[in-house]
Specification:
With about 280 residues, the protein is of the alpha/beta class. It is about 50% helix and about 15% strand.
Length: about 280
């Protein structure tokens, strides 16, 4: 959580296409404090990724040392000063919940590159992503309890689903903030590398995933989610998506090419006579 930055007409999120990857760079100085403008820009980046069938990965990163330090303190100040301010803050938190849910359910793989602090709402946004790669030096956590508040943009729910209630209680109820290496050990992120290697490692990871078919990635995401959703039958969902995938022209072409390659006769090994 941070103080409001000076007003600027610069976009809060820059987007750039890199083959099958849409890179969305958070750029609200100094620490990407979450406000309506930044949430609007994130929504627009998700729209762009979902609408472009050639995008396979939405890669979130920061233009600043900090990934996202959470809610704007100026907004928080107004929220405790009046009922109108409180309603405005609740509306923003609801929008943050929606953005995290969109990252979670988007038909592309969402990747958060955490080079610096990702705290409060910033970490909640990262938890909405499918994949998280952090610098070993990064600081991650949900410290809201220290202010008498709650990680209400989905943090209590997603963190508990991710690491289980015991570890979620440890992190949330003690307002613990951990570095990237510890986050990897606890299962909060899938990779942790030195900050000097983070950008290149994240780009290579995004490009590797972007080489895969979008329809397969989009089908796998709800199946994985169903495994931790009591009301879903993940096995039937697998069958339903498999049915659609076998009908997809790109899948048919890939399977046909694979079978043709596998069916090619193996050249005979040279005999002793031919080599003597």
């Amino acid at each position: 959580m941070t103080e409001s930055s000076t007003a600027s007409t610069a976009p809060a999120v820059h987007t750039e296409r890199q083959d099958g990857v849409l890179v969305a760079t958070l750029a609200r100085p100094p620490v990407n404090a979450l406000d309506d403008a930044l949430v609007d820009a994130l929504d627009a980046a998700i729209d762009q990724a979902c609408a472009d069938a050639t995008v396979k990965v939405l890669h979130l990163r920061s233009a600043h040392k900090v990934f996202c330090a959470g809610a704007d303190l100026a907004l928080m100040q107004r929220s405790i000063a009046s009922d109108e301010g409180l309603q405005a803050m609740l509306a923003l938190v609801r929008r943050m919940q929606r953005v995290a849910a969109r990252l979670e359910s988007a038909p592309v793989v969402t990747l958060a590159e955490l080079g610096g602090a990702a705290l409060g709402g910033g970490f909640e946004m990262a938890l909405g992503c499918d994949l998280r790669i952090a610098a070993c030096e990064a600081r991650l956590g949900l410290p809201e309890a220290g202010l008498g508040l709650l990680a209400a943009a989905g943090g209590t729910q997603r963190l508990t689903r991710l690491v289980g209630p015991g570890l979620a209680r440890r992190l949330i109820l003690s307002a613990e903030v951990v570095d990237g290496r510890t986050a990897l050990e606890l299962g909060l992120v899938q990779w942790a590398v030195p900050r000097a290697e983070l950008g290149e490692t994240a780009r290579a990871l995004a490009q590797r995933i972007a080489a895969l078919p979008r329809q397969a990635l989009a089908a796998a995401k709800p199946c994985i989610a169903a495994a931790v959703t009591a009301s879903s039958d993940g096995f039937e969902l697998e069958l339903a998506h498999t049915r659609e995938l076998y009908r997809h022209p790109d899948t048919r072409a890939r399977v046909t090419a694979f079978l043709a390659r596998d069916a090619r006769p193996t050249p005979p090994s040279p005999s002793k006579e031919s080599t003597s």
